[in-house]
Amino acid sequence: ALQLLRAFEAMGGRGVAAPSANRFGRVSPTTAQAVRDELGEHLETGDLVVEGEPSHVGIESTIVDCTGPAPVILRPGAVTGAMIEATTGLALG
Fold it and tell me: From CA 9, how far away is CA 33, in angstroms rounded?
């Protein structure tokens, strides 16, 4: 990833949108073509969509607040509360 960002900067690139490439309220695309379909009218000439393997999960990222005594899920996603509890040994708040 760092190599990609350095090469992008060397080409004059000024920004990267990652990891999700979807508009607010829409499900995240799982392929580069789905990104182009979703954001095509908002892309400018020279904007690049990085091609990779299709994502196996088209659900949003789980966002966890770990600033308190217990983790709190702020946005549910592919990583479940049970997975967080099993991994951390902590009960969710």
Answer: 24
